Amino acid sequence: xxxxxxxxxxxxxxxxxxxxxxxxxxxxxxxxxxxxxxxxxxxxxxxxxxxxxxxxxxxxxx
Length: 62
Fold this sequence. Notes:
There is one protein chain. It is built from one helix and three strands. Strand 2 (34-40) and strand 3 form a beta hairpin. It has one domain (3-54). The mean pLDDT is 93. By secondary structure, the chain is an alpha+beta fold. The protein has one helix at residues 17-31, and strands at residues 3-11, 34-40, 46-54.
């Protein structure tokens, strides 16, 4: 089963949908993060949980 690391991002209410999309796209493109879940709060803010896979290297024995 793969292991993931998580990052929580808070997007305030005043941030436009376009700016939030750009922020999440930058995280995905440059940090290799993917969207795990997005929670839209009653006040209009967003709580986003991003995840990326942890790749464990197996030590080579020569």
